Amino acid sequence: MAAQPAVIRKKRNGAAGVRSAAAPEPRVAQDLKAWCGDPNFMTSLARGLAVIRAFSQQHRSQTIAQLSQATGIPRAAVRRCLYTLAQLGYVGASERSFSLRPKILTLGHAYLSSTPLAVSAQQYLDQVNAAVHESCSLAILDEDEVMYVARSTATTRIMSIDLKPGSRLPAYCSSIGRVLLAQLPPEELKRYFARTRLRAHTERTVTSREKLLQVIDAVRRQGYALVDQELEVGLRSIAVPVLDARGRAVAAMNVGAHAARVSVRALETEVLRHLRAAAAELGALLPA
After folding, report:
1. In what helix (H) or strand (E) does residue 145 lie, and over which residues does it extend?
2. Which residue among 22, 124, 219, 227 is least packed, with the fewest CB closer than 10 Å?
3. Burial of 156 (0-12, 13-18, 19+ CB in 10 A)
4. CB-hemisphere CA count at 13 Å for 186?
5. What is the CATH number of the domain that holds 25?
6. What is the model's pLDDT at position 156?
7. How many helices (H) and strands (E) in the chain?
8. Max alpha carbon distance in the chain (Å)?
9. What 3-state DSSP class applies to 271?
10. Structural domain includes residue 1
11. Tell me, what's the pLDDT at 190?
């Protein structure tokens, strides 16, 4: 076995995994507790995946303490996860911080290259992009967030949010998220709001559960969602669901544009028309 990197060695002083009594327990820790007692549940694997997911565009390099704080996993367990991931080439170490290595892309590539949705969507995203000259994306609802799985090829960075396959956004204040939330059964939607912290990203962000339920109900009736600068100032987006042969929403497609360049009216007329056509064509290709 290779020698353990010095930066991964356990510290002699300081209790591992100590959390402030006032700090709320992360969702990851809650989920792990929920599966406690299931003899078929592999806690070590779940912890390793949680550590991987704790890295993001905003937190590309993190220490053991930061990862423990973000996941609720004890530091000693985080250290072992990082050691294993480093030995396998998925994580790199620098001083006392860690970051993901390019090999981690192989985990997501297996999904993106095998799912009919991601493979089939590209031509329709590019079709919308060519028609409206704005970026077009496809995303799914993954747990409580929107996860982007494909994006138009001829895309440009609209605002400071740089979206790529694998990028995640909050569902409640994104157009794609609201379209997908509108497809959830009432009880599941209720549970989503019970566990989701509604944070204001701009002065326009709707953070009232009652108001959001009204907005989502309207999205369900009209068949599309338009978000005007609720996620980021200057960013407008519009989304429609992608329905399979059974009428189930398997994903959503959206167009995002700068508010100074594209009006709300233009999104609801010209852009929406192209989005709906592309979503219908893509949905017709999907198996029931």
Report:
1. strand 145-151
2. 22
3. exposed
4. 2
5. 1.10.10.10
6. 53
7. 11, 9
8. 64
9. helix
10. no
11. 92
CATH number of the domain enclosing 277 = 3.30.450.40
Distance CA 96, CA 72 (A): 19
Going from the C-alpha of 187 to that of each of 22, 183, 190, 251, the distances in angstroms are: 30, 12, 5, 20
Number of domains in the chain: 2
Q: Which residue has the tokens 């993901």?
A: 100
Helical segments of 16-89, H only: 27-34, 43-53, 64-71, 75-87
Placement of tokens 């973000």 in the chain: 70
Structural domain that includes position 275: 108-285
- How far is the C-alpha of 210 from the C-alpha of 260, rounded, in Å? 30
Q: Tell me the pLDDT tens digit for each residue of 186-216.
A: 999 999 999 899 999 999 999 999 999 999 9
Q: Looking at this protein, which amino acid is placed at residue 27?
A: R
Distances (CA, A) of 15 to 6, 30, 68, 72: 19, 21, 12, 14
3-state DSSP call for residue 60?
Answer: coil
Residue located via tokens 């969507």:
121
Mean pLDDT in runs of 10 for the chain (288 residues)? 45 41 59 78 88 81 90 91 91 87 74 67 92 92 88 64 77 96 94 92 95 96 96 94 88 93 94 95 81
Length of the chain: 288
Domain boundary among 101, 135, 170: 101
Q: Which two tokens stand for residue 280?
A: 């219908």
